[in-house]
Amino acid sequence: MRLSLALLTIYWMLAGFPQAEPILEFTLAPSEDLLNQPVSIDLSGSDYYQDTGKLVLYRVDGNNRTIIPSQLENGMSPKLWFLPGRIIPSGEEVCFEIVKLSGTRAEIVMTARADKDHITIFSGEQEVLKYRHSMIEAPEGINPLYRKQGAYIHPLLSPAGKVLTNIQPADHYHHYGIWNPWTKTIVDGQEVDFWNLALGEGTVRFAGLISKTAGEVFSGFTIRQEHVNFKALGPEQVAINESWHVKNFPVEIEGRTCWLIDFTSTMNNPLDSAIELSAYRYGGGIGWRATAAWNKDNSSVLTSEGKTRKDADGTHARWCRVEGWFPSGISSGILFCSHPGNRAHPEPMRVWPEDANDGRGDVFFEFCPIRHSKWTIYPGKDYVMKYRMLVFDGEISPEIAESVWQHYAQPVSIEWIK
């Protein structure tokens, strides 16, 4: 089941909530046209963030008050997330009201579910993506060093159900859907490769589920991963601890359902000495081996700087749109957005050229923060990389891509009324 804003609105209308007086009011007045994208408001200055399931958000349009699905996210800075429910043109000021219920309301939820192999994000009953946490063996007859203890996303599906990721392709058995190991690193004076598994120098593995999130607006999970150095003396060494925070917002853009996926990686060096992430064309950030259905003849690349597959590799960009056609005639793709707080933003990229893999032109994309310069990871500090992915069917124009990135980079300002 695909949950649309229209269905959620009908649900809340039927719920018949009383028109109570608002406890908080605020306005949005975007400087650029605001598509129906996630907005968050900080509730850390109030006690209302503790009222999970008791807050209802209204959008006020003249004399009309429309219930807007909303979701509390607790943490160091508690936030109330919502989708505006319509495009808000530049310069228009829209008022929103938060009402507190006397009891807990029913919810229609997006969910994240864990089983023995995966953590799966759903929109309604529709699968969005799977994060693998269990061991996957190397293909039969292939070097067993290619086996991997999870730590990747596959499959990632488009809203139409098209699989956009690929794992263990015969040309690169170490490619795993969406993943982010570092390639050339210096740990305790030794060069260690966590990317090329067949070298036997290192790997990245799942290390634990921290939390799952479900709600009206998004679902997601937070997990731990370990970058393991097999070259260390004595017991195996965890060189980098990492967490992934992944959440999906089903959104409607130009009348189409899209997945808007926020991906945050936080690294920490637990050793007593610094680690060097050496400059190289692969490593870290966010990497994607695309479906085997795409090649140089049925796919395209466009960056925020106007680069295409012919000249994008090694350049910097705020966003990169990669799309392709399937034999069924459906086109799908991913818009990758780099956060302005990321290292080396606008971020350098690895984009396979059209003659990749013996001329087939298979598709690989990566935001690669160490493409042109090394990065030193010091003990006891957190290092954060943030990305937003818009997963779509059909086509996304450069103007829409820029609007999605602008809102990610500079969230719309909020003015409190009370």
Summarize the structure.
This protein is mainly beta and 418 residues long.
Helices and strands in order:
Layout: H1 5-15, E1 24-28, E2 39-42, E3 55-61, E4 64-68, E5 70-73, E6 79-82, E7 94-100, E8 111-114, E9 118-123, E10 126-132, E11 135-136, E12 148-149, E13 152-156, E14 178-179, E15 185-187, E16 190-192, E17 202-213, E18 219-229, E19 237-253, E20 256-268, E21 275-277, E22 286-289, E23 299-303, E24 316-317, E25 319-325, E26 331-338, E27 347-351, E28 364-367, E29 375-377, E30 382-393, H2 398-409, E31 414-416
Antiparallel strand pairs: 1-7, 1-31, 2-6, 3-4, 3-7, 5-6, 8-9, 9-10, 10-13, 11-12, 14-22, 15-16, 15-21, 17-18, 18-19, 19-20, 20-30, 21-29, 22-28, 23-25, 24-27, 25-26, 26-30, 27-28
Notable traits:
418 residues; mainly beta; 5-stranded antiparallel beta sheet; 2 helices; disordered N terminus
Q: What is the number of domains?
A: 2
| C-alpha-based Rg, rounded | 22 Å
Report the sheet-strand fraction.
Answer: 35-45%
Shape: globular
Note the main sheet.
8 strands, antiparallel
Q: Structural class, judged by helices and strands?
A: mainly beta
Give the proportion of residues in helices: under 10%
Mean pLDDT: 92
Tell me what the CATH architecture of the largest domain is: Distorted Sandwich
The total count of helices amounts to: 2
CATH topology of the largest domain: Beta-galactosidase, Chain A, domain 5
> Which residues form runs of ≥5 with pLDDT under 50?
1-18
| Secondary structure: number of strands | 31
Question: Which CATH C-level class of the largest domain is it?
Answer: Mainly Beta
What is the first-to-last residue Cα distance? 38 Å
- Strand line-up across the major sheet: 17-18-19-20-30-26-25-23
